[in-house]
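Q: Study each token:
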Amino acid sequence: MAGKPVVAIQGERGSYSEEATRHLLGMKAELRCCERFEDVFQLTASQETQYCLIPIENSLSGSIHKNYDLLLRHHLRIAREINLQINHNLIVKVGTTFEEINTVFSHPVALDQCDTFFEQFPHLIKRSAYDTSGSVKRIVEENLRDCAAIAGKQAAEFYGGEVVMTDIQDDKENFTRFFLLSPEVEAGEKTNKTSVVFSFRNTPGALFKCISVFALRDIDLTKIESRPIRGRPWEYLFYLDFLGNIKEENTRKALDHLEELTEFLEVLGCYPRDVSQQRKGM
């Protein structure tokens, strides 16, 4: 990618989102940190940033539905994906001992992924925060010696915190899938995965017919997700991921067939599939 890419992310420096960005775009990428996902999308939709990076699903807690809705609302396109392994650590201000801690801050999802740890230490109080790395920033900057944060090691390194326990998550196979988004589809010869969204009139067998356009052509579906259509109770949008390049004849025929069966169809991106499940988080 030419020049220094500018990327919007949700959360503070040292976050898992920053780590995913570095894997995809390198250390020279310039970050714009936002508190809300709405702001992340808006910065890229208004072309104030070249890209934004958002989490879309976690292997344990499932899809992040809000980001599916924002993806369609802002008409951004998926340029890349990455499956980042998430390793949670207990981080304190340097010099704080575990015995001093009575409160633990982190994002609600991170707290939920460490239930076994909290069962082992029931005296610790959970406190939700908007970001994992932001929790580390807070305890260090505010000198909270009776508090800790759950985050990645990169957050401890960035803010000068100290890791007192590593890998405290319940399940070691904990991956978050991130999308790198841009205003335009960037399909190239090496892209082999496509995401679409569609809706159809609710008639008997309608969803089966839509999915069949891929089965008839031996196209592998990797995910399907439904989201309610606002203003139309009990009607749904279907988000679908499949293996294939939109420049390939087989894929084009499948999408042409799907368009005949649907009221609405939009290609959200054509990008390289991340097949690595061994990419280690910090």
Q: What stands out?
A: The longest helix spans residues 249-261. Residues 278-282 have pLDDT under 50 and may be disordered. The chain is about 30% helix and 30% strand.
